[in-house]
Amino acid sequence: MKIRSVQYWRAVAALMVVIAHALLHPLPFPTPSLRRLGSFGVLLFFVISGFIMVYTTGRTRFDPWKFLRRRMERIVPLYWLVTFAVAFLALFAPFLLKNTEFSIGQLILSCLFIPYARGDGEIVPLMKLGWSLNYEIFFYLIFACASRLRAEARVMAVIAFFLLLVLYGIAAPSDIPIVYFFTQPVILSFCVGMLLGLWHLRGGMERSPPPPLLIAALAAGLIAAGFLIPTRSAINPATDGLFTLAAAAMLLLGLRLENRLPVSPAGLLLGDASYAMYLVHMYVVGAVVLIGQRLLGQPVAAFDVVLTVAITLAASIFIHLRIERPIGKALRGLRLRPVAVAG
Questions:
Q1: What secondary structure, in 3-state letters, does 7-63 show?
Q2: Helix axes 274-296, 265-272, angle to 10 degrees
Q3: Domain encompassing residue 214
Q4: Residue 131 to residues 117, 250, 300: CA-CA distances in angstroms?
Q5: pTM (2 decimals)?
Q6: Is residue 123, in this structure, part of any structural domain at all?
Q7: Residue 49: how many CB atoms within 10 A of its CB?
Q8: pLDDT one-digit tens code per residue, 146-172
Q9: Nearest-10 Cα torsion for 273, 147, 142, 319
């Protein structure tokens, strides 16, 4: 059974990323607050992911192969479709893309969720936003490796491993893209979500429910600090840490108010479509900006954002209902189909 508040927060996380990119794309220079808004959305996804993996696998051991197969069924098909679409554009219409260049090697590494450095030094796959999916898949693999442990030990083992990776990255920074990528502190966002999931799984909400106003105030304070803290770079471990804790507080607030939240079919649908929204929105942003520049001579930020969000919502819902959901249903059918025995 899906948790309504989690679905709503998924939609919010995706919309934060959409709005940030819709505002950033036309600008000739990066704006720290907008970059932080997009980063906040991704970190909210990571915290939710850590929470959901613990919550759905329960307190006992689980089958790691079934777990990974289900995660791959959810993540891979749509990501590969979008990645191949980007590869097609990079080959035949490169003027539609900002910095993406095609190579077979990059396509293979992207499809396998293996981080690599592009020509400009940025560690992102062919479909640029897929960098977050590289972290997601890595988290799933490590989580599956601890499947033979019970929930408490499983969570502690994954957290310990991630802490060791981060400490290694601090003590011995590496120039190897895959090592550098997976030793960044951002991976600890999954750990915060796992701890919240474990607390919820053990009945923490029933035994000692925190006051909603206190949680809301904590979340607001952390969000404000994340946007206002002066740092040398827009996104760094300090802002990531504040936004991760804010995301955990938001998730906790949703769980606390779960029984009071209205059932919103639109909100639940947007939560389901949030993955599609995340994957396709940058190309909607690019198209809207390009058309706006051709027709109006210059981008109009407010118009761009409203139009981008509207088109992205419509496109993501269509893709979820007409592409993502049918593919998932077909893959589940193949998995559940009984094997005929001869004789």
A1: HHHHHHHHHHHHHHHHHHCCCCCCCHHHHHHHHHHHHHHHHHHHHHHHHHHCCCCCC
A2: 90
A3: 30-263
A4: 11, 24, 29
A5: 0.94
A6: yes
A7: 23
A8: 999 999 999 999 999 999 999 999 999
A9: -10
